[in-house]
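Last lecture ended with a question: if I hand you only a sequence, what can you say about the shape of the protein? Today we answer it with a concrete record. The protein is BTB domain-containing protein. Below, first the input exactly as provided, then the predicted structure, then a couple of comments.
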Amino acid sequence: MASLDFTRLMTSGNFSDLKLVCQGKEFKIHKLVACSQSSVIATALKGDFKEAQSGIITIEQFDAETVRRMVEYLYTGDYDQIKAKSNAATSVALTTPTTAASTASSTTPSTAASITPSTAFSTTPSTTPSGASSIAPSITSSTTPALLVTNGTLQHVQVNAIADYYEVPGLAQLANRKIQQTYLASWDLNAFVASAKAAINDSGDKSLHNMMALFTAQKLKELLRSGQLPSLVGDFAASVLAYHAHLLEASQREQSQAAVQQQQEAQQQQAQAHVALQQQYNDLLVERQAAEARATRVIENVGKLVSLSNHQECCRSISCGEDFGSYIEATGDPAEPTYILRCSWCHCKHTTN
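The predicted structure:
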């Protein structure tokens, strides 16, 4: 079974049972689609409310383009996609009847059958009074990037506002994502200030307010330099934020200086430790060399005594003259003793000289 084409259902207006009226435009929609996503519309169509009796909801707080975007979202989950594809201002609204006769004729089968999508869903009347401007500003190739950002974000803010008013949370979240993506891709201070003011004044969505507050905090220095912060948050709050920014900068400078000083002290301590280790190494090297020299002298001394003992046949002492038996005696500094060869019988000293 083929899936339901909600876009065609929206653009055709077939089987619609509810009208949204705004600035002379009629948007023919379906209660099932609207009420399942907006608790406010669902409540208005219950009980003894006049909207429930007439099947008409009049919207005065928002312009027709904003209403068109909300309706497109209700049917497609997005907005401005159909308009972008067709490169023309299209919506779900029938053109505003100019006379009672045309209103009556538009309901007849023969007339309804002759209506084409291009005429049935235009957001502007079939005839525009001389000098009248369209609802949405015209964006031409000469439009500056800042104006594009301003127009885009203001439109998204209005979409958020209508979503907040009619309690369509998915639409509010979508508008917030579009606002965030716009500013992350192309930041413009003047555009931000304009859209932030609109967000504060027109929408009660805390998520949108928090996002604008975050952008304000991130761009606080730029806003302070531009002088536009008081118009956004008020003179007193701007003064508080200015002092806070000044104190924060001073604190950051102090922290930076302290970090530099700590780094210098750490480097100095490291250098001192290196010098101390080098000195210890040098001292150990000197001690080792001295010990090796002492050991060499001791070995030479003992070697001479052993050689003397091997070649001596009898004691050199005239009073002894016994066959030579000997022992070695250590004298002097224990760290570097001097060894003496003595006769085992008379204990006289035998030298190598």
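Comments.
1. The two ends are 125 Å apart (CA to CA).
2. Residues 87-144 have pLDDT under 50 and may be disordered.
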